[in-house]
Amino acid sequence: MIALWENLPALTQDILFTLLLLSPSFVVGVFVLHGYAPWPLVRAILWRFRGSSTLFVLLIAISVGMGIGLLAQERGLRRGTAHAADKFDLVVSAPGSEMTVMMASVFLKPSDMPLLDGETYNAIANHENVSIAAPLAFGDSYGTASVIGTTAQFARYLADDHIEGRMWQSANEALAGALVPLAVGDSFTPAHGHGDSAEEEAHEGADLVVVGRLAPTGTPWDRAILVPVEMVWTVHGLGTGHDPQHRDQIGPPFDPQTFPGTPAVVVRSEALWANYALRSEFTRDRETMAFFPGAVLAQLYQVLGDVRQVMSIMAVVTQVLVAAAVLLGLFIISRLFHRQIALLRALGAPARFVFSVVWSFGATLLVAGSALGLLVGFGSAAVLSKVVTARTDIFVTAPLGMSELHLLAGFVSITLLLSLLPAAIVLRQPVVPGLRA
Amino acid sequence: MMRILVVVFALLTAFAAVAQEQHDHDHDDHVSELAGFRAVHAWARATGSNSALIFMELENGSAAPVTISGGESTMAASARLVGFALKNGREVWQDIPGVPIKPGHALHLEPHGLALLLGGLSTQLKEGDELKARLHTSLGDLDLHVEIEGANATHHSHAGHSH
Amino acid sequence: MGLPLTISGLSVSSKRGRLLLSVPDLDMPAGSLVGIEGASGAGKSTLLYALAGLQEAKGSIRWGDQDLLALNAGERARFRANRIGMIFQDFLLFEELDAGENAALTALFRPRRERATLRAKAAERLDFLGLGGETRDRNVVSLSGGERQRVAIARAMAAEAPVLLADEPTASLDRAAADRLIEDLVNLTRSSGTTLIAVSHDQTLISRMDRVLTIRDGAIVADRKAAR
Question: Is the pLDDT of residue C130 over 80?
Answer without folding.
Answer: yes
